[in-house]
Amino acid sequence: MKMLYRSLLFLTFIASTTGLFGQKLKAVDNTQNAGKVEWVTRQVDAGKSALGTPVTGEFEVKNISKENLIIMEVRSSCHCTAVEWTSEPIAPGKSGTIKAIYDGQRQGEFYRIITVTTNFDPAQSIPLALIGKVEAGQDTAKN
Question: What range does the domain containing 76 cover?
Answer without folding.
Answer: 26-135
